[in-house]
Amino acid sequence: MRLKGKVAIITGAAAGIGRASAVLFAQEGAGIAAVDLDREGNEALASEILKAGGRAVAIAGDVSQAADVQRIVRQTREHFRTLDILFNNAGIVMKGKIHETTEEEWDRTAAINVKSMYLLCHEVVPIFLEQGSGVILNTSSATALRSVADRVAYSTSKGAVLALTRSMALDYAKNSIRVNCLCPGTIDTPSLGRRLSAFADPAEARRQFIARQPMGRLGTADEVAQAALYLVSDEAAFVTGTALSIDGGSAI
After folding, report:
1. Given Cys at both, which of 6, 38, 198, 246 links 14, Cβ 3.0 to 4.6 Å?
2. Is residue 209 part of a domain?
3. pTM recorded for the entire structure
4. Domain tally for the chain?
5. Mind listing the pLDDT tens digit for each residue in 12-38?
6. Is 118 a catalytic residue?
7. Pick the catalytic residue: 118, 154, 172, 230?
8. Can you tell me the distance from the alpha carbon of 234 to that of 216, in angstroms, rounded to the nearest whole number?
């Protein structure tokens, strides 16, 4: 019960890393405010946690919209009466080089991958300052540390997440607010499955993705969730401003 009595907002909670983290955090004692645009998947997650004896509430919302973010934070506090952890995990992957990326695609990537974190932190940090403690975890990417081809909007946004994390960690270190980020490599999630299905030969595309990995396999959402658990737990009490790679060695 490493998170006993804690409450966590997790965005992008309906699938992949967000879902695995929500289940694990709940098993470790945290109350979960599961946030996602996928209302059905989000509610199924909350129901699973509740049936297992945990604490959870599903909150549908668009984290790139200020009004939705304000409502998400308000409903979390109304439901649980407290808030200790913010896991900014929602994100999208947009493929393309700079000349192939439309303004709409660029703006959408920035809104979901970066602006959402600003909006949530803007609402949550005053709460953490008032109570004198809090933990923020952001999902960046291995592409923030080592570029890959055809991902200019995505890589740029995840580089911004890394910079945001380090800036906030420095700003609030003396306020007992820790801020860290995860840098996952290629993780076998439903999101990856959807991207692979767009290839002419999805099976071959998967083989190529695996071939790029020094460890010879893709990562799992559960593996990333274990790293997330460490960073939001008291075991990482002296860790802030860190970018933790979970990438099978791809950034070496």
Report:
1. 38
2. no
3. 0.95
4. 1
5. 999 999 999 999 999 999 999 999 999
6. no
7. 154
8. 33
